[in-house]
Design brief:
Length: 666
């Protein structure tokens, strides 16, 4: 009887195994090396079968298809009036292409086409993915990964490829990226599912973890050299198995190693300000100190409810931390970052910090490089404030408020050129500007640097004075401000984009051809900067709807001004101001000797009116406080007359009660 029972049981099991394929038969995607990504796209209705009933996983993906995949996976909604001449409304992916273009994820060719049916190369895909990373506010990894065929990647695309590889969205095969090779639908799906995993989409998470390479093989190939771009947080992503320890700061080093199984247990055991919590020798909590970004990050500011691009090596105030994130403050902007994005440094074991000092009456900023643990560079950007003593170091979180190491000497200092609104007019003539430009070019040429060879003959800044003054008269934007931007962004008119494309500001880098936008003249390039970027986005109060670029019409800092959104370098505004200051110094300080009076608004929702009474119509409204204004007359009946940030030739007025006049250093 036992034998019969066993035989019956075996027959039942065999019958079930034989029957199983009929219950859930395999399809063409089962076992495919990119199965996870392909099924993810199907779940988003991004990938559908063709007329033959196939998902075509091994076919080349087109530009239109990839744009559609991104649009549907990211659930894009907002559209603008962007139109490509070869994408009619009847095109199958027309709506998704428009959505992706409106989000700034895709661009087209200079002739207005998009070429939706063209196969997309892997390097072009990397550029689109980088823009998607920015759109989704995913902090970028340090772009250090290179492939064996890195030289084959178009120079302007290498950073996008490196960022994608660092985040493990992009992977190669046997150490090669194959940049010019067309990507398959399967490869595209793996790129996108990895992107959306980082974005936190629960639909993108699958138990199999996806494939480990982007090649066409389906075997267990390695990731082609990507392992060197792994997590830099010392293992704190494996919180389930990681061990925490309490260490104590003693004579500038960390000693002791009291272990705990959880962060919470370690946190409860901390009893002294000199103790820190570490995980795999990485500090994850301390009583005081500062945080330094390990790589480029997107900081979501709770202060202004917006994401800020922040460069690597940026020092920020440390506020607090838990097992997963660090709370920081950058120039008054409070937000959170992952432990992997920052290094926490207690003040007592700091080997060096960026600092300011008074050097012969000028303020000099010296920067510290935390990768090499050395002071790396410095720049002068104006006169030193009166409270700064020579031979003494000062520190500042926002470039406005400064204190020395012991806190005994401190004060506010608004650099005139850094916080001078763009509507100010310079007193220098076109001829004076041209004279300064030629003298400056002769100075940099004399350094012998290869970049500046023949600068006095070849620079695109030569003879620019009249153009700058014409733009100032027409657009009401300071000619010296535009010159300072041009000097900084184009290496004094000697950069490759300036020389080859008449592009002083690096405007428009297309995903298909970064050298595509060739301006007919420098004047056209400047007008494009003013009309398409500065005027509508950064100067006009409120800016372009949905972009949140308008944070004050000054170059400013990460606290306010263009620098909040224009550049990830937190000192970009100060560096632009430095160019203006040095030009002033060479020309005799005509602007500083007859300065504008500058004030800051002190309340949210402040109306600027066409007359000095609430009965007059609002010209515009400042949504947030702290906006710089130029005051052109003393208060009359409780109102200041100001220069309008909105392009407007009439008079503008604001209530004196909501504006604080600031003392600027000049």
């Amino acid at each position: 009887m036992k034998k019969l029972s066993i035989i019956a049981l075996l027959m039942t099991i065999i019958g079930m195994l034989l029957w199983q394929p009929q219950l859930a038969s395999a399809d063409e995607l089962t076992g495919h090396s990119h199965e996870q990504g392909l099924r993810y796209l199907i779940s988003k209705n991004a990938l559908v079968k063709d007329a033959k009933g196939s998902y075509r996983p091994n076919d080349n993906v087109t530009r239109g298809e990839f744009a559609s995949y991104l649009s549907k996976a990211m659930n894009l909604k907002a559209t603008s009036d962007i139109v490509f001449k070869d994408v009619p409304d009847t095109y199958v992916h027309a709506k998704d292409i428009k959505l992706a273009a409106s989000a700034g994820i895709i661009t087209g060719y200079g002739d207005g086409s998009f070429k939706p049916n063209a196969a997309i190369s892997r390097q072009h895909m990397a550029v689109m993915l980088e823009r998607a990373i920015d759109y989704l506010n995913i902090p970028k990894g340090t772009p250090t990964i290179t492939f064996k065929d890195n030289a084959s990647i178009i120079k302007d695309y290498r950073q996008a490829v490196a960022i994608g590889a660092q985040l493990e969205i992009i992977k190669g095969s046997n150490g090669y990226f194959m940049p010019e090779k067309n990507a398959t639908i399967g490869q595209a799906s793996s790129f996108i599912v990895r992107l959306m995993q980082l974005a936190g989409d629960p639909d993108a998470t699958a138990p199999n973890g996806g494939n480990t390479n982007d090649g066409n093989t389906s075997g267990g190939n390695s990731n082609g050299g990507d392992t060197n771009g792994g997590n830099s947080n010392g293992g704190d992503t494996n919180t389930g198995s990681s061990k925490y320890a309490i260490k104590e700061i003693s004579n500038g080093t960390l000693v002791g190693n009291q272990g705990f199984s959880t962060f919470e247990a370690a946190e409860k055991a901390v009893t002294k300000n000199t103790q820190v919590i570490v995980q795999s020798d990485k500090i994850v909590k301390m009583s005081s100190g500062y945080a330094v970004t390990n790589n480029y990050v997107a900081l979501k500011s709770e202060t202004i409810n917006d994401s800020l691009a922040v460069a690597a090596n940026t020092e920020m105030e440390y506020l607090s931390s838990d097992a997963t994130q660090v709370k920081v403050r950058l120039a008054g902007q409070v937000g959170y970052l992952k432990h992997a994005d920052v290094t926490l440094i207690p003040f007592s074991i700091s080997k060096g910090r960026s600092y300011y000092e008074n050097v012969n009456g000028e303020i000099k900023h010296t920067l510290y490089d935390y990768k090499t643990n050395k002071y790396s560079s410095s720049y002068i950007f104006g006169k030193a404030p009166s409270f700064m003593k020579q031979n003494e170091k000062y520190y500042s979180w926002n470039g406005i408020y400064f204190s020395n190491g012991n806190g005994s000497s401190k004060g506010d200092a608004y650099n005139y050129y850094q916080f001078l609104p763009a509507r100010a007019q310079t007193q220098y003539t076109a001829q004076e500007i041209d004279t300064y430009i030629m003298n400056k070019l002769a100075e940099i040429e004399s350094t012998g640097a290869t970049l500046y060879k023949d600068a006095t003959k070849k620079s695109k800044l030569i003879g620019l004075g009249k153009t700058l003054k014409d733009v100032e008269a027409k657009s009401q934007i300071n000619a010296m401000l535009i010159l300072s931007l041009a000097q900084h962004e184009s290496a004094y008119g000697m950069s490759e984009h300036a020389q080859k494309l008449n592009n002083l500001f690096g405007l428009y880098v297309y995903d298909t051809n970064p050298l595509n936008k060739n301006f007919d003249s420098i004047a056209d390039n400047i007008n494009e900067l003013v009309d398409k970027f500065l005027q509508p986005n950064y100067i006009n109060p409120g800016g372009t709807p949905g972009k949140n670029f308008a944070n004050g019409a000054v170059v400013g800092s990460k606290a306010l001004g263009f620098n909040v959104k224009y550049a990830s370098d937190p000192f970009w505004g100060a560096k632009i101001a430095g160019h203006y200051y040095r030009a002033e110094k060479a020309l005799g300080f005509k602007d500083a000797n007859n300065p504008y009076t500058i004030g800051l608004t002190t309340t949210n929702g402040l109306n600027v009116r066409t007359g000095a009474a609430t009965s007059n119509n609002p010209l515009f409204t400042y949504a947030r406080s702290g906006m710089p204004v130029i005051i052109t007359s003393s208060a009359t009946n409780g109102w200041y007359e100001i220069i309008s940030d909105k392009l407007y030739t009439g008079k503008a007025f604001v209530s004196k009660d909501y504006v604080q006049v600031i003392n600027t250093v000049k």
